[in-house]
Amino acid sequence: MKPPKKISAVAITLNEAAHIERYINDLWFADEIIIVDSYSTDDTVALASKFDKVTVHQRKFDNFSAQKNYAISLAKNDWITFFDLDEEITKPLAEEILEVAKHPKAIAYFVKRANHFMGKPIKYSGFQTDYVIRFFNKNFCQYNSNLVHEVIEANGKTAKLKNPSPHFTYQSFDHYTGKLHKYSALQARMLYEKGKKPNLYHFFFRPSYRFWHQYLIRLGILDGKEGFILAYISGFSVFKRYVNLWLLYRKID
Amino acid sequence: MPKLTVIIPTYNEEAYLEDALFSVTFADEIIVIDSFSTDSTPAIAKKYATKFLQRNFDNFSNQKNFALKEATGDWVLFVDADERVPYALKTEVLETIKNPKHTGYKINFPHFYMNRFLYHHSDDVLRLVKRDGAKFSGSVHEVLEHPGTTGKLKAKMLHFTYKGLHNYITKKESYAWFQAQQLYDRKKKATWLHLFFKPTYRFFNSYIIKGGFRDGVPGMTVAAVNAYGVFQRYVKLILLERNMR
Fold first, then answer.
1. Residue spans per domain, chain B
2. B239 touches chain A (CB under 8 A)
3. Does B53 touch chain A (CB under 8 A)?
4. What is the domain extent for residue A44?
5. Which of A90, B79, B94, B202, by CA, is between 20 and 30 Å from A154?
6. Radius of gyration, CA atoms only, chain A
7. Is residue B192 within 8 angstroms of chain A, CB to CB?
8. What is the rounded distance in angstroms from the CA atom of residue B210 to the CA atom of residue B1?
9. Which residues of B touch A250 (CB under 8 A)?
């Protein structure tokens, strides 16, 4: 048996004291754990530093891509796991990663996220294809430069892992919509920098399209009331993006 | 000459309060009822107020009733810190209380929103009452009760409610919790009808029936955000039923 490739587990944190210990324990299979913290004001750093395998670095946050690429650059090994703090790496998923690491056939592996919302698992609503690259060879992969929804660009063959990662993104409804508000503001800023002007098509068609797309085409209808609620707040978030853009041109808040 | 008392409730209003106070200096008595502001609101208030009162906030009704008990004027005008009484309104108020036909008067509030007035989305709010027999009831949407009939003034109140889109939306979001709690206490259940029909109706009503479409993008935004607020009310009712946030 060939030993598995050495693995560096990498993460970025800001005020994650509530998750950090569970997260590090989930990474028992990694050979080293690199944490790049953007100057948390809670106990994140102290809690993380207790673990032998963990090295904590601090860097001022500019954007997700830059922060994540910096974290990757600190890793000693080629093979990287890069999970978010609110994602759980279950035992079967960890074992699958170790197994794959023996004979990697791809340069990047997708993990399916198992999402929850308002206390219910969400199987449709667009989340059926919520696959994200979480295990990869750093020589072929890096984060692109999107300000929001940064994704890993992989130059080579990719594959999917079988075991999902439970994703605890829901803390409260206001927290959830608060994140959407932040995204819509950032997306408006991106459109503004590209010189896009909002018009009636953006205000009326795009939000309704997002709603119906998520609710019918992406089968949100099968997720019950939660599917409806998710589709509605997505549609509203699209609307808000264009109102923000409209405001940016008029220099009002 | 009948005497006029102005009552202004405050909490951390240092940015807005001074102009409001300045606009009501014609009153015989100014009472500021503060919920223990942590900014310079008390210092600003004391410059103009006849009486500066502080009380822990529980709800608007109790807070304003507390100030009402301290009032000595024959008539009382309620003004918020982000509102201004323009000259035309001042004149009409003083004229009205000399020869009143009613015991309460509504004042029209065109919303100042995204740097323009929304004339198709204005509210009439009861703000001027004869002190005798006037009191507030209700914990969220407080209602001003008075013994006689209600009239309406022609002049408008200036109202600077808009402090940015994000602020406007998050205010609706926290307000939705209050409303959901009230529905929950009355044992109401959130149904599909509420989630689907109520927000749609609210948008349609605000944008088409009330003519919000004539106020451009701001009119559309008010309609959409109000509908979103209604939607959130029922989502949050579901959350309360599940004992979640």
1. 4-159, 165-241
2. yes
3. no
4. 7-167
5. A90
6. 20
7. yes
8. 40
9. 114-115
> What is the layout of strands, in order, in the sheet containing B104-113?
B51-54, B29-34, B4-10, B75-78, B116-130, B104-113, B150-156
Contacts of A246 in chain B (CB under 8 A): 217
User: Mind listing the pLDDT tens digit for each residue in A214-240?
Assistant: 999 999 999 999 999 999 999 999 999
Last residue of a domain, one of A167, A188, A213: A167
Indicate the pLDDT class of residue B104, thresholds 50, 70 and 90. very high
Please state the domain count of chain A.
2
Same domain, A230 and A186: yes
Task: Measure CB to CB from residue A173 to each of B170, B224, B239 and give the nearest one.
Answer: B239
To test the contact with chain A by mutation, choose from B113, B160, B162, B169 the residue with the greatest count of A C-beta atoms within 10 A, namely B169
**A122-169 confidence digits (pLDDT tens):** 999 988 888 999 999 999 999 987 766 788 999 999 999 999 999 988
ipTM over the 0.90 cut-off: no
Give the best residue of A182, A236, A251 to mutate against chain B (max B CB count within 10 A).
Answer: A236
**What value does the mean pLDDT take over residues B198-209?**
95
On chain B, the residues whose CB falls within 8 A of the CB of A232 are: 195, 199, 231
In this complex, is the C-beta atom of A94 within 8 Å of any C-beta atom belonging to chain B?
no
Tell which residue, A199, A234, A200, A203, has the closest CA to residue A217. Answer: A234
CATH of domain B4-159: 3.90.550.10
* B23 Cα to chain A: minimum distance (Å): 26
- In order, the DSSP letters of chain A are -PPPPPEEEEEEESS-TTTHHHHHHHTTT-SEEEEEE---SSSHHHHHHTSTTEEEEE-----HHHHHHHHHHT-SSSEEE---TTB---HHHHHHHHHHHHS-SSSEEEEEEEEEETTEEE--TTGGG-EEEEEEETTTEEE---SSS--EEE-S-EEE-SS-EEE---S-HHHHHHHHHHHHHHHHHHHHHTT----HIIIIIHHHHHHHIIIIIT-GGGGHHHHHHHHHHHHHHHHHHHHHHHHHHHT--
Looking at residue A168, what is its pLDDT? Answer: 87
Do A159 and A177 belong together in one domain? no
Question: Buried (b) or exposed (e) across B157-191, using 16+ Cβ within 10 A?
Answer: bbbbebeebbebbeebbeebbebbbbbbeeeeebe
